[in-house]
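Sharing a chain and its predicted structure for anyone who wants a worked example. Both blocks are below, sequence first, tokens second.
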Amino acid sequence: MSRGSAIIAIMIAFVGGFAIGQVTGGGDDDGSEVTAVDVAGRGAAEGAGAAAAPEDGIERYRVPVTDAQPSKGPEDALVTIVHWSEFQCPFCSRVRPTISRIMNEYRGKVRFVWRNNPLPFHQNAKPAAILAMEAFEQGGADKFWEVHDLLFENQRALARADLERYAEQAGLNMAQVRAALDNEEHMDVIGADQRLAQSLGARGTPAFFINGRQLMGAQPFERFKEVIDDEIRRAEALVERGTPATQVYAALTRNGRTSPPPPAAAKNKNPERPARRQPDPNAVYKVELTGELPQRGPDDALVTIVEFSDFECPFCGRVEPTINSILEEYGRDVRVVWMNNPLPFHRNAKPAAIAALEAFEQGGSEKFWQMHAKLFENQRGLTRENLERFAQEIGLNMAQFRAALDNEEHADAIEQQQGLARGLGATGTPSFFINGRNLRGAQPLERFKAVIDEELAKARRLVENGTPRSRVYAATIADGATSPQFVGGDDAPAAQPNRPDPDQRYEIAVPRNAPSLGGRNARVVIQEFSDFQCPFCGRVNPTIERVLEEYGDQVRIVWRDYPLPFHQQAHPAAQAAREVFRQGGNEKFWAYHEMLFENQRALSRENLESYAERVGGINMAQFRAALDNETHKAAVDADMAAVREAGARIGTPSFFINGRLVQGAQPFEAFKRAIDAALEEAS
């Protein structure tokens, strides 16, 4: 056992763990059930005799600080900032100058504590975290921060060979480094960090807790300064009343939250507007089973669980033992029906889904579940080569199998299932409908059993009243909903949690020279933040065309780049489009824009050059030089920074209509409402 493992084991034995409820978010994020361990280390233990923190109305979280986390700054600092981060995240890198400035300007008053949260779509983030924690084990905080700096300075070069080179530069014991990387040592500590982050609602990176006060994202220095200055004043008041400086952090956070406030209990910031509705846990949805679908359990089961899942999603893999336990415990009373929802940022998820459905077509449920097992057992290796190997191992016809992958057979069936999931509000994975009742995320067995037992009792009553077992599911969902259902806030619009406040206006300056369509002096300016590789961005384009047709010169569309970090070809595509705009203005840009969206799956360097040649009138030597030298990278990044500096948190596509945010590929009616309101204000 590593030193980190021993520390965690001792602390868990000393304090114990606490389980929290489901953690889910908007967009296409995976939902998961996590267990966080409150490790009472130095900070909490020292707080045993500290004066109680004043009831100051500040929402704080109890974030433990122990010797298991690297830190810098004095232990008696008045402000402790716990920082969740990862080495491949571009936003984590961009906030580093802000952190350095904080440490310089508040020298002796602030300490930073590092915790790991390598995101699943950054393939090199976890190995980099392992190396950093190995440096910490070998040489303490000094070696950790030395390797930390090397990793961030070389974010684009985090392959295994690169990691070993940085370890050598830092003078680490290379035999121990290689063993740590080979055996994934320190994952106990890293995993505990991740679970704690999720339990506190800090799923993205970077995330900061300043004396327990949450601050998300790569915020500017001024946002940190505002909170830090306030915390210093509060800490100094505690010290004046007799709390030792070493116990200030424990005193302030002792009564802090250990999980985010439930959405239904969130404070209503505008008392004149009713609280928003929340998803109804008792709603029954009409999830029809059309055609042949893979299933486990009999057709006449009393409870049907429809599972929307993704073979590359780690949470989907973690819930599989729970599903197996359910089938074993409930026998013929439960069946599980599989539906696919490969998320767009999981590159191998759709080919894996095609492979599984081809196995189903060739050999029915038996072959499907054999392939299903192999895919989940090898989630990190879902390459084309491995998919073919799995097919051979379960005895599929390889010519048919290869043709299915080449031609993306079964893609229509997959997209229909994805559309069904979206229509029901189940955008993340895994998501379950238990006799029509939605349960999201990798929930523990007890959460499943609570719903299953309720549905079993209802089903048995139906059977007692004459409904055949084989008709129970159809009867149960017959009158089910086909769109998301909500409870609470009777007069509020049925909106998902985390939707932007429709009344908030963001100050985002419109660039003087950006691609645009519509009237130059339009009363309504729509800044579209988009990503050429994002499928939803492509789907909204016809709606934008309709906006221009109906509103003419009253509206101006301004293009802004927002390439998401898990779309590897989006940033180069954005830079290529900017070079086309530089050379050919609006006309060439929009022609190139159309080509990129028409060919979203083919955005390689060769493709980008080919499309530029097809546009015509582009100096290809200059075009290639712009891509080679990343001439427009800073401009693309500046667009993304403008959103963050305005305090907005967005996905793609997102639209700022005279400063008001409309998020996602919304229907025309949503744009019309926002535009009409903006026109009325401008009149």
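Comments welcome. The chain is about 45% helix and 15% strand.
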